[in-house]
Amino acid sequence: MNKITTKAIALFTALLILITALPMSAMAATTDSVYVGADHASGHTADLYWYLDYNTHNLKISGSGRMYDFPSNGNRAPWIFYMSSMFGTPSNYSVTIDPGVTYIGNEAFNIPNIVSVTIPDTVTGIGSRAFEGTQITKVTLPNNLKSIGDRAFYGCTSLIKVTMPPTMTYIGNNAFYNCIELKSITVPEGITSLNDQVFKNCGDLDVAILPSTLKSIGANTFDLCYSLKTIDLPSGLRTIGQRAFYQSGLQSVTIPDSVTSIGTETFLDCDSLSEAHIGNGLGTLSTSAFKNCTSLSDVTLGENLTTINNSVFENCTSLATPPDMSNVTYLGKNALKNTAWLNAQENGVVYAGDILVTCKGDSPALYRVQSDKRVIAAGAFSGSQTLEQIGISEGVIYINDDAFNNCPNLIAASFGHQHVFGSGAFLNCPQLVFYGPKKSTAYTYAIDHNIPYGITVDETGDCEWVVHAGNLIISGEGAMEDYASSAHSPFVAGITSVVIEEGVTSIGNYAFADLPNLTSVTLPSTLTRIGGHAFENAAALTAITIPAGVTEIGEDAFAGCENLTIYGYKGTSAQTYANSHNIPFVALILGGDANGDNKTNVRDVTSIQRHVAEFQTLTGDQFLAADVDGNGVVDINDATLLQMFLAEYDVVLV
Questions:
Q1: Phi/psi at 7 (nearest 5 deg)?
Q2: Which of 190, 618, 627, 645 is the most exposed place for a label (fewest CB within 10 A)?
Q3: Helix (H) or strand (E) holding 412
Q4: What's the sign of the alpha-carbon dihedral 288, 293, 299, 302?
Q5: Taking a C-beta distance cutoff of 8 angstroms, is the pair 219, 196 a contact?
Q6: Are 77 and 107 in contact (CB under 8 A)?
């Protein structure tokens, strides 16, 4: 042996002595000593002993108890240094953990050149990132294992098979993320939650068997699992997180009745998915849940599903028929955009069942939503430059978000009593005026959003009124309200006709005063009172027929009606008022009033019968009134018709 070789050996031996004599704090996890020899490195960590054999390329962990969680005191696991390129040319290593070890610490073996591992049944927990990035190909987890920490096998790109014991209760986030060659997985009974991204980007995963105990699937759990074509979701499952199956290979999915929530984009870009059946427990389909599922052609919704959020079925180009949405109260923006069904619809307002979905092309200037529709979808007319007036029928209950947002030329919208307005339903409509009942949700919405409001329906005393296109109709049972002046009356100058329906008994003081355009008034037979100043200064009114039952006409009821003629019955308040106020009066004949008392009752039947039997003779107005069939003769037929009329048969008296 030459001198150079001898000196080299001596120097190397001295270095080994120096290394073994000092604590390896820069390489060890704790102050535990490390021995480095020619063929191995070894040391203690906590109550465990480790031995790294350079010849067999095996790391053995022995002892009793828990392994440290690493980094510990700022240092990685002590064996990592001696297995890595920092110590020399790295080799592939196996890891053997002897019985007695109860816990594998965080980041214990996260080094790429570990290719196999043996774990004893004494281990009950595996820490986070414990085997992250290793090249192990299969792992049998110990029979007493309870938990796997976050990222425990993250990026184990050679891992093909994992066997999990029935004792497990927890699998951490990202536990098997990016295990791209993992073929199948059976999640054991007892697991209640699959946390976020557990199997994300397991591109070869084609079998995933889930336990009956599973309650939740986290976000991105099966994200990018391209080979996963089928999955049976257990009947006790409650929640599915966002993007849980994003870009997976699923061909069909049935969401069980137990599921009450799914996250946004749950099945986004599942371009092989052709069938989706939603259970009865789900109330909402979250945003973009099935967006870009280009093969989706068959969808059934559960009976309790009421909300379909934005873009749920957008770009489902094979969906030729929308699902039954008869229970849906909210249809989001673009929910059916670019589906085969919507693309096939002609330009104009488009309905799906009782939902107004959208308007393709330019909106009509004037449109009234059909009375048998319930919902106007979110954004249905949003951005329309051509819509000017919209009528929303009483039957339309739900006006969804942004339905008429940004319609700059919309000047009028009319409503019924009860509608549910979504956020921004009429935002950015600068010329808009609402029209509808005062006691209504539309009125409240207008006040809250500073939208001008024209009342078209309200109450007056015991009655209700509605006005449309200048025509006022008053209905109800009882009396209208008395007003202190015309300024207090709700009726505006644009009214041209008034129809008071049967059942109304009294017209309030000043009710129709100062209506300059009023030309037509129809009064019911139930009316008994016309209040003071009721028609004062209705200058365009030229004729009114006052029923025989009116017994009170108030002061100045028709003052200022310079061209008025009153039609009524002899001896009634109408004639008295007309004569005392120098108003022309035309007497009417009350059909069937054979005895001339301005009433039609059984006494008139008797008068007709007496005339037929020649006990008395009817003449003049009484004869005309008795001729109820209008044939110029008073006979027994007239008596019969009048009796039928009094018995409320469908008979008209001439």
A1: -65, -35
A2: 190
A3: strand 412-414
A4: negative
A5: yes
A6: yes
Q: Is 582 exposed, middle or buried (0-12, 13-18, 19+ CB in 10 A)?
A: exposed
Taking the CA atoms of 333, 290, 285 and 199 in sequence, report the sign of the dihedral they define. negative
How confident is the model over 574-618, as pLDDT tens digits? 999 999 999 999 988 777 877 878 788 889 888 888 888 888 998
For 265-328, the three-class secondary structure string (H helix, E strand, C coil) is: CCCCCCCCCCEEEECCCCCEECCCCCCCCCCCCEEECCCCCCEECCCCCCCCCCCCCCCCCCCC
The separation between CA 231 and the C-alpha centre of its own chain, rounded to angstroms, equals: 27
| CA pair distance 189, 591, nearest whole angstrom | 88
Q: How far apart are CA 35 and CA 389, in angstroms?
A: 88
Structure tokens at 6: 């001898």
Residue type, position 379, single letter: G
How high is the pLDDT of residue 605?
Answer: 85
Q: Which amino acid is it at 530?
A: I
Strands 585-588 and 565-569: parallel
Residue 271 and residue 318: Cα distance in Å, rounded? 10
Element (H, E) at 507: strand 504-507
Q: Do 248 and 224 meet the contact criterion of CB atoms below 8 Å apart?
A: yes
pLDDT tens for residues 170-219? 999 999 999 999 999 999 999 999 999 999 999 999 999 999 999 999 99
Backbone angles phi, psi at 39, to 5 degrees: -120, 5
188 contacts 212 by C-beta, under 8 angstroms: no
For 634, the enclosing helix (H) or strand (E) is: none
Quickly tell me which residue has 């015309």 as its tokens: 486
Q: Phi-psi category of 632—alpha, beta or left, where left has phi over 0 and alpha has psi -120 to 50?
A: left
Mean pLDDT of the chain: 90
Strands 348-352 and 284-285, sheet pairing: unpaired
Token pair, residue 278, equals 């939603």
Which structure tokens are listed for 406?
A: 């940004």
Q: Which of 598, 588, 548 is nearest to 565 (CA)?
A: 588
Nearest to 645 by CA among 623, 626, 621, 632: 626
Report residue 300 as tokens: 């059934």
Judge whether residue 375 has pLDDT over 50.
Answer: yes
Report cis status (omega within 30 of 0) of the bond before 71: yes
In this structure, what token pair is assigned to residue 528? Answer: 């008994």
Q: Give the DSSP per-residue string, 220-264.
A: TTTTT-TT-------TT--EE-TTTTTT---SEEEE-TT--EE-T
Token pair 């935002």 in the structure block, residue? 427
Q: Phi, psi (5° rounding) for residue 541?
A: -80, 120
Mean of pLDDT values over 214-236: 98
- At 371 the pLDDT is 83
Residue 138 to residue 118: CA distance in whole angstroms: 10
The β-bridge partners of 162 are 139
Amino acid identity for residue 196 in this structure: D
SS3 content of the chain, % helix, strand, coil (to 5): 10, 25, 65
Q: What is the pLDDT of residue 26?
A: 36
Q: Tell me, what DSSP letter sits at residue 419?
A: -
Q: 623: which 2 tokens?
A: 């004869």
Three-state secondary-structure class, residue 435 = strand
Look-up of token digits 């938990």: 147
Whether residue 21 is predicted with pLDDT greater than 70 in this model: the reply is: no
Distance CA 153, CA 198 (A): 10
> Is 355 in a helix, a strand, or coil?
strand
